[in-house]
């Protein structure tokens, strides 16, 4: 927007300068005068605009400056250096402890971008509930998340309400129960394939990459539960779809720089950048779009032929009948991307924690085996899985302690207030599960400890003082529609993995590289390499 305004203003100004002959001192012909005047004006006004918005406004003028916050170490880059260097949320965890505040913390991020961090349930409820359609997804989300399609995740206002109403029945617990056998069978398939990999290795405790297994299993599950399609990525790791998601979900230095550019450049500029990383994602997007369209066509044929099938999410959307094919295509893209890397991240954090905490792993295995005597059974039910108390405690604690989506962002679409403070249009709000889920104010002094037993406290909420203390799936009308589905899926996978295997880090206290992406998971040498052993008797 700003670029367009600067260009138009420079054009008008150069017209005036040429018309009034002010530029005749630098060149004779009007064409040459434009050729000199126009770019000079664009550059000089661009510099003035950038200096104002980058340095002057945030440092001296912004009304947000009076909100309490940590002192910025840099005049031009706020806390940007720390934010880039550290794990997502680590600087913010320090601020919520050390900066006395009333529910909002103000800080300057990369290149002095102004940010507000809500810290109390009251302010979080304002952003996520009472003003959820005023605090909308920022434009730059649309570039970063373009692989997620233009479905419910990106819709706003009445359009979002309409889509949410249509899609909610697909995630109803009754429907979930009917999908459970599918989740369980995919878990069994994964466990058998990993056990075969362990046996085929011929060494006692071979290394298995659980980032890859988790992603492939959850991708196959979403293919089947989302559209009744077999992606077969567990059996064929070189499968195109899996490779595409791997490539785009693995944060690279190039993507990091694009993310920074995305903060300051308009959407059309980002889409047209002549860079390989941009072309790769565009190609991936079209591949997935075509795949989703194919799934819709196949489903129409199956429905016309009355082929018996699972009531997957696509069937339910079609039966409901009010979404166009293009809308269904976008929703499928959303479910496929939003619904597999997130759960896979929870699986990765789980096996990594189990590899470091043998006492937790043993207790979990014992309870799993007591509740479910054989893994290879078709008759395991959701209720059996739900009955395993320590499984509930462990999975709840992983989701609290290592939220797969560490941060999400909102932007005020008009002037408003939060906690009584004036919030100008365009203000960015950071919603940070990775920070709020660790708040001592909300969880007590042991908030920073990994402790599954906290979920035995009365109330069933881990001792939190508010529902807004746990932001893993967010809250309010924009909370995760797939929450119940993903929790059942995740628990089934953990039953299979923790019940059958023991894990150990590849090397003691293995160093993790945790890079900021849409999801966050433990990574070492590009995967999650763990020594893996089959524990006999199950
Ligand atoms: C552990 C697993 C998961 C986590 C931690 C998670 C987390 C989240 C979060 C934090 C949001 C809010 C994003 C935002 O508004 O900025 C969200 C939204 C959403 N999630 Fe999930 N998710 C998970 C699994 C799933 C699954 C399995 C599906 C689908 C099958 C799914 C579908 C969606 C959709 C469609 C939305 C947008 C909802 C709306 O805007 O109305 N998610 N999820």
Strand order of the largest sheet: 1-2-8-5-3
Q: Please give the alpha-carbon distance between the first and last residues.
A: 62 Å
Q: Radius of gyration from the CA trace? A: 26 Å
Bound molecules: protoporphyrin IX containing FE
Task: Give a count of the beta strands, DSSP E runs of length 2 or more.
Answer: 10
Structural class: alpha+beta
Uncertain runs:
none
Protein name: Cytochrome P450
Family: Belongs to the cytochrome P450 family.
InterPro entries: Cyt_P450, Cyt_P450_E_grp-I, Cyt_P450_sf, Cytochrome_P450_monoxygenase
Organism: Arthrobotrys musiformis
Helix-strand layout with pairing:
Elements: H1 2-19, H2 30-61, H3 80-85, H4 90-98, E1 104-108, E2 114-118, H5 121-130, E3 135-136, H6 139-144, H7 157-167, H8 173-201, E4 207-209, H9 210-227, H10 240-249, H11 253-264, H12 267-271, H13 276-304, H14 313-320, H15 325-338, H16 341-356, H17 358-371, H18 382-386, H19 389-401, E5 408-412, E6 416-418, E7 421-423, E8 428-431, H20 433-436, H21 440-443, H22 483-500, E9 501-505, E10 529-534
Parallel strand pairs: 2-8
Antiparallel strand pairs: 1-2, 3-5, 4-10, 5-8, 6-7, 9-10
Helix pairs in contact: 1-2, 8-9, 8-22, 9-16, 10-13, 13-15, 16-19, 16-22, 17-19, 17-22
Keywords: Heme, Iron, Membrane, Metal-binding, Transmembrane, Transmembrane helix
Family: Belongs to the cytochrome P450 family.
InterPro entries: Cyt_P450 (IPR001128), Cyt_P450_E_grp-I (IPR002401), Cyt_P450_sf (IPR036396), Cytochrome_P450_monoxygenase (IPR050121)
